[in-house]
Design a protein that fits this description.
The protein is an alpha+beta fold. Helices cover 20% and strands 21% of the residues. It contains 2 helices and 3 strands. The chain has a 3-stranded antiparallel sheet, covered by helices on one side.
């Protein structure tokens, strides 16, 4: 299973993905996978999308809270 399967789109039909940082409208280039172990099963992954300008900020935010799991590239 790859990231496109998780997001429900294949590479040929992938819409433009937008950064998840509030107020940002840039194109996302990375997917930050996370979960909250207090409420999610260990295998569950939620996704935030990040542009190059906000990838470090979003991953630090998740990491400080113990939620960060991994980052995957969205580039083809």
């Amino acid at each position: 299973m790859n990231l496109e399967d998780l997001m429900g789109t294949g590479p040929e039909e992938a819409p433009e993905r937008q950064c998840s940082r509030r107020g940002c409208r840039q194109r996302a280039t990375a997917a930050l996978l996370w979960n909250n172990p207090r409420i999610h099963r260990p295998e569950r992954r939620k996704t935030w999308l990040a542009c190059p300008d906000h990838e470090a900020w979003l991953s630090a935010y998740l990491n400080e809270r113990g939620l960060y799991r991994s980052t995957e590239s969205l580039s083809a």
